[in-house]
Design brief:
305 residues; alpha+beta; Phosphorylase Kinase, domain 1; D-amino Acid Aminotransferase, Chain A, domain 1; 2 domains; seven-stranded antiparallel sheet; 16 strands; globular; binds adenosine-5'-triphosphate; binds magnesium ion
Length: 305
Amino acid sequence: MSQATSTIDTVWQTDLGGLPAPKRGKVRDIYDLGEHLAIVACDRISAYDHVLQPGIPGKGKILNQLTNFWFEQMTDLVPNHLVATDVADFPKALQPHADVLRGRTALVHKASVVPFECVARGFLAGSAFREYKRTGGRACGIDLPEGLVRASRLPEPIYTPATKAEDGHDENIDYPTLVEGVGEEMAARLRDLTLALYGRGVAHAEKQGLLLADTKFEFGTVNGELVLIDEVLTPDSSRYWEADAWTPGTEPVSFDKQYVRNWLDAEGWDHETAPPELPADVVEGTLSRYAQAFERIAGHAPDLS
Ligand SMILES: Nc1ncnc2c1ncn2[C@@H]1O[C@H](COP(=O)(O)OP(=O)(O)OP(=O)(O)O)[C@@H](O)[C@H]1O
Ligand SMILES: [Mg+2]
């Protein structure tokens, strides 16, 4: 792995000449092409809502290619925003930039974004675990059994939506709050779809010896039709654990961003001031985990060329 990855250049951000300036998310550069968007997954990584330095070379390609893999697995459950994934099929204006876009860019339908994150959880981790401890047994308004510990398996997967805040500090909400935001019918569709997509992901991951502990989906509407957008079941948006090593009450062996969060926590960072710079071994360790997640799920190595 390291041999292949150490030679890759980091794409921190893109500035494509001849196009309007992109909107930059924490990870992606988004070019507005009118009816379509070109979404470029760069090599930035964020944790605790802060973008960290330096980038993780090739990470954007892994996220983009894994999302495309999952979109394909899910087409019978929900349509997605993809228009084209092969640079050769992109509009003329993007062709001069083919080398930088290749493997990390999706041409998509511009959607009206549903302003809630759709989270499914089969295990107790992250904000749900913190909330469970704080409230003495609830997460997002859902009563959970007593005596659960970090990484416990839940009796059944739960839907725990969150706000999609502009400042990035998303907050968990209960189901009635989602209904207030989008109406009864849409809330039920988002919940049912989220759980169905999560179930599909869990089943596939399990075959590869991975537990998909939780994940976040985003939806939007295109011409009135509900579609899956953004990224799907990536190590940025999901927790992937080594099934063989899973022991409730202990920190799971994970193939996701948790490795970086743990390093930041060990450094004693306060999550507010400028984050410490990731050392080379943590950059390498992160990339290696993301690449392993990809390989185990897709069954082949990501194309980082
Ligand atoms: N088809 C689409 N139409 C419109 N917006 C989309 C579409 N697909 C993804 N997006 C948006 O593009 C952005 C992706 O960029 P990125 O993942 O870097 O953002 P982020 O920092 O995670 O999120 P945010 O912008 O919400 O803080 C997200 O805001 C996502 O909602
Ligand atoms: Mg995002």
